[in-house]
Amino acid sequence: MKIEVTFDSLDEVRKFTEIVMVGQATAQPSNTQAPVQPAPAVHNTAVPVQAAPVQTVPAQTVSAQAVPVQTAPVQTVPVQTTPVQTAVPTSTVAYTMDDLARAGMTLMDCGKQAELQKLLKEGFGVDALPQLPKEQYGAFATALRGMGAQI
Question: What's the domain of life for this entry (predicted)?
């Protein structure tokens, strides 16, 4: 779609910008012009049309001072920043021998007794759970979880 607007005077430019900027679609036309009629509705029908000769009208330049420009005031909003936390706080879970034994029993009930004995012997260097040092309880609990135990 192409729309061309031609102005004959600076007064017409001002009235046009008022209509566009303020949104007064029903602004009164100047006394020297005929009222603007709405364009007829366009329907999508194929009708052969002969080209009419095109008449060009010289463009009229308008200085930047003639067209008022309104700008909205700029508001600044203070932004609060929060420090970035780099480490996630964790808590140390203290496992007891009973916790580890219960988890081991559930694995043995599932038929994983041989795997459990292999884990104790090769992974932690002990033959039985009571021989496991307390410092190894957390690592052993993690290994039990890896085998499917709920602890």
Answer: Bacteria
Average pLDDT over the chain reads: 77
Neighbouring CB atoms inside 10 A of 140's CB total: 22
Average pLDDT over residues 62-87: 66
In a domain, 19, yes or no: no
∠ CA 31-36-38, nearest 5°, is: 165
pLDDT digits (tens, 9 = 90+) for 95-136: 999 999 999 999 999 999 999 999 999 999 999 999 999 999
**Count of CB atoms within 10 A of residue 144's CB?**
23
**Domain of 119?**
97-147
Contacts of residue 25, defined as CB under 8 A and 6 or more positions apart, other chains included, come to: 19
Q: Report if residue 91 sits inside a domain.
A: no
The angle formed by the CA atoms of residues 71, 76 and 77, to the nearest 5 degrees, is 140
Categorize the per-residue pLDDT at 27 as very low, low, confident or very high, splitting at 50, 70 and 90.
Answer: very low
The number of domains in the chain is 1
